[in-house]
Amino acid sequence: MSILVVGSVFFDDIETPHGKAARALGGAATYFAVAASFFAPVQMVAAVGDDFPREEMDFLAQRGVDVSGLQVRSGRTGFWAGRYHEDMNRRDTLDLQLNVFADFRPELSPSHRTAEYVFLANIDPRLQSMVLDQLAAPSLIGCDTMNHWITESRADLEPLLQRVHVLAINDEEARLLSGEQNIVLAARRLLAMGPKRVLIKRGEYGVLQFSPESIFAVPAFPLEQVFDPTGAGDTFGGGFMGQLARSGDTSEAGIRRAIVYGSVMASFVVEDFGLNRLRGLTHAMVDQRYRQFVSLTDIDGA
Amino acid sequence: MSILVVGSVFFDDIETPHGKAARALGGAATYFAVAASFFAPVQMVAAVGDDFPREEMDFLAQRGVDVSGLQVRSGRTGFWAGRYHEDMNRRDTLDLQLNVFADFRPELSPSHRTAEYVFLANIDPRLQSMVLDQLAAPSLIGCDTMNHWITESRADLEPLLQRVHVLAINDEEARLLSGEQNIVLAARRLLAMGPKRVLIKRGEYGVLQFSPESIFAVPAFPLEQVFDPTGAGDTFGGGFMGQLARSGDTSEAGIRRAIVYGSVMASFVVEDFGLNRLRGLTHAMVDQRYRQFVSLTDIDGA
């Protein structure tokens, strides 16, 4: 079963305590699509400029990503520059140029409209709603958002939340959106706003999943070096939705395993700049780290 | 098998966003002993003033804590006052009076010297070493410490670490003691300093255990209200050592289960001021929350 993702494609200048990267391929839709492509075919709807390199388009296609929904516009691809602190949970945005992304309007082709697994990466909630309006019969809709939309576009975001199945946001966003400091109360409030499940991404502390019936916690994989945290949350989303699309198992156990696959993919992507680590990744490496996650968390394990 | 704990007994004035408590029974040895008493008999070595209430002595005895090693000195019991921020990971010390604890020297009776399970709660590492010097043949030694000793008494702390089996400290202390920011590298450095296992306590984010062979991660129990975090780490230590003494199982699986029992006890103690929550706690409640931890972390669970 294929997955449709709608979101941003950017180039990123990234500086971390471990080094720098210039014009690394990035954007939420890109990280998501490349991660998901390890599990299922991916359809990607986004906008890039006419500066977008042929080789990156080829890379996406080689990964099984359908780029027919990638609108190539006259102008430059979006650009972000950021610098991480020694404590890499903190970063400063040095530059942000939306470029062709400023006028992005998602338009789905007939083959996109029948998508069953859909992920609305972090963009204006009005655009996210426009995507849903065009879908025939999606079976599972995941959604991300960010501080900017929570504070500036709440009137657009709240009706959207009633239409999505899984909301995946970070802990700071969960607190802001819910108005609750305690993360359990925050999640309960978010569930009451519409989604059936809320995934709270906590960076190096892992992920908490809340449904009305249960809570699931998975740690982040303990890494000796986090090289670049950019895109970790979107990569998590790609692994999560990818595994759901591959397995078709949306039971509690199926969702839990998908959360672990999302965590596996996120643990890889932070090991190098941008999504470089995913370029050489194999399925065997993904499966090996999944088993390491099982061992890491198994109370009765040895 | 009984457990020997050496450490502090204090009274605490505590202020959190949820309220205040005056002269709550506290101190690392107290939290540890009460938590451990749910699993095994506990021998407690500490110093209190002649103001220490009869009813608290009775409470400890009723919990199966051998208080024959509690030195009652002329003067006042140690006192600490602190205020937690809205973000309860942060707190300010408002007052600290060591009182009779200033001259505390651990002296073990013959029945204490044969202890097999020993926990050196956070006190001057010279005193912790004095305890070890008096032991006949301990089979498992756990140890805690804090920032103050790491910076001011490193020359005493380092030889001590070569004599302990399990070091249980928080993430900030692990970074300070190891000089490594990354928590995996920090733990590896700490293992090289002597302990066979390092437990890194991360408050609301749970615990990481490192041995040379493996890593185990357990989340904190997601609570709707954390009322008072005081003593959570010491309570964790009590549940951990208590379960080890009860089961006698120090295999990897046995250690992991003990870490979960420690987390269970810590999750209870923060639900009320001081150690009030433990006063009415039953074994059935402990076992129920253990099962909830299994469900919380089980990747294949439903």
Q: What would you say this structure looks like, in words?
A:
2 copies of one chain form a homodimer. Chain A has 302 residues and is an alpha/beta fold. Chain A is 39% helix and 24% strand. Chain A contains 12 helices and 14 strands. In chain A, the strands form 2 sheets. In chain A, strands 1, 4, 5, 6, 9, 10, 11, 12, 13 and 14 form a 10-stranded mixed beta sheet that branches. In chain A, strands 3-2-7-8 form a 4-stranded mixed beta sheet. The radius of gyration of chain A is 18 Å and the shape is globular. The interface between A and B is large, with 40 and 40 residues.
Instruction: State the assembly state of the protein chains.
Output: homodimer
Under CATH, the topology of chain A can be stated as UDP-N-acetylmuramoyl-L-alanine:D-glutamate ligase
- SSE-based structural type of chain A: alpha/beta
Strand composition percent of chain A: 15-25%
Tally of distinct domains of chain A: 1
Tell me the CATH architecture of chain A: 3-Layer(aba) Sandwich
Most extensive interface: A-B, 40 and 40 residues
Contiguous low-pLDDT stretches of chain A (5 residues minimum) are none
Described by strand count, sense and barrel closure, the largest sheet of chain A is: 10 strands, mixed
Alpha-carbon distance between the two ends of chain A? 36 Å
Shape of chain A: globular
Number of helices of chain A: 12
Helix content of chain A: 25-40%
* Helix and strand run of chain A: EEEHEHEEEEHEHEHHEHHEEEHHHH
- Chain-averaged pLDDT of chain A: 96
Would you report the number of β strands of chain A?
14
- Indicate the CATH class of chain A: Alpha Beta
